[in-house]
Amino acid sequence: MIFLVAAVLLLGVLVGAAAHLTLPVVVPAATAIALWLLVFAIRERRREH
Q1: What is the pLDDT of residue 35?
Q2: What is the tens place of the pLDDT at every residue in 27-46?
Q3: Cβ(30)–Cβ(14) under 8 Å?
């Protein structure tokens, strides 16, 4: 759960900073966070079953 909270906080910081950063910087960072959340969701779903 702490990883999910950290990911959401990091995403919030990046979204806030996105107004000041260029697109080639924001897109890879957002992609990395999205992949992290996807891996987390898959691991959590597997643990439930």
Answers
A1: 95
A2: 898 899 899 999 999 999 99
A3: yes
Cβ proximity of 33 and 10 under 8 Å: yes
pTM of the full structure: 0.58
Residue type, 36: W
Q: How far is CA 46 from CA 14, 30, 40, 42, 49, in A?
A: 29, 24, 10, 6, 5
Closest CA to 30 of 17, 42, 43: 17
Calculate Rg over the CA atoms of the chain.
13
